[in-house]
């Protein structure tokens, strides 16, 4: 279970403020796969980061029951001078899991080949995301935070990624951000739509997508 209580997040830069979350109070049940839907810049990734604990809300609090992954595919905390393998071993020690087992899993899933043994700073953005995705999947979290990870790599890797994710979600929960409506329908059972700093719960993904389309049409009519 993930509970947001009066969560507000405001960014300020050069005298300009933007609020992406405004006193959001919402409960996401444990074990549910929830689609997080909204226009570009609505605050979806910021909300994931706050739930993961890598970003603090401006006010309010987030209560988490169980373990939550970092945003799957996120690779911003890896050490640039360490290889993919060394970064994997480091993460395994942090989470107290078998290092050799995680290394073997990440090497196979990431499909990095010899690059797995090269410094992380030499990786392309796609390779970094693959490493982060594989590492996330190798750790047994109660809830996975997924941010556009299946857009990484070629078609075969995207298909493999989705199969692996769907297998995890048979017994675990997730919050999923994606611009692919068909994928959200396949993976999720409920939705949260973010619009103008507010979050609204929908019992089905289709209902959430319909509301999102209405939001976009309203914006077009006002332009």
Can you offer a commentary on this structure?
- The strands form 2 sheets. Strands 5-6-7-3-8-9 form a 6-stranded mixed beta sheet, with helices on both faces.
- With 223 residues, the chain is of the alpha/beta class.
- The protein has 7 helices and 9 strands.
- The model has no long low-confidence stretch (mean pLDDT 89).
- Helices cover 38% and strands 28% of the residues.
Please write out the topology.
Layout: E1 2-13, E2 16-28, E3 33-37, H1 44-52, E4 59-64, E5 68-72, H2 84-95, H3 99-110, H4 125-137, E6 143-147, H5 155-168, E7 173-177, H6 181-187, E8 190-195, E9 198-202, H7 205-222
Parallel strand pairs: 3-7, 3-8, 5-6, 6-7
Antiparallel strand pairs: 1-2, 1-4, 8-9
Helix pairs in contact: 2-3, 3-4
The total count of strands amounts to 9
Q: Note the main sheet.
A: 6 strands, mixed
* N-end to C-end Cα span: 39 Å
**Which outline best applies?**
globular
Mean pLDDT: 89
Separate helix tally: 7
Q: Kindly provide the radius of gyration, computed on alpha-carbon positions and rounded to a whole number of angstroms.
A: 18 Å
What ranges have pLDDT less than 50 throughout 5 or more consecutive residues? none
Structural class: alpha/beta
Keywords:
223 residues; alpha/beta; six-stranded mixed beta sheet; three-stranded antiparallel beta sheet; 9 strands; globular
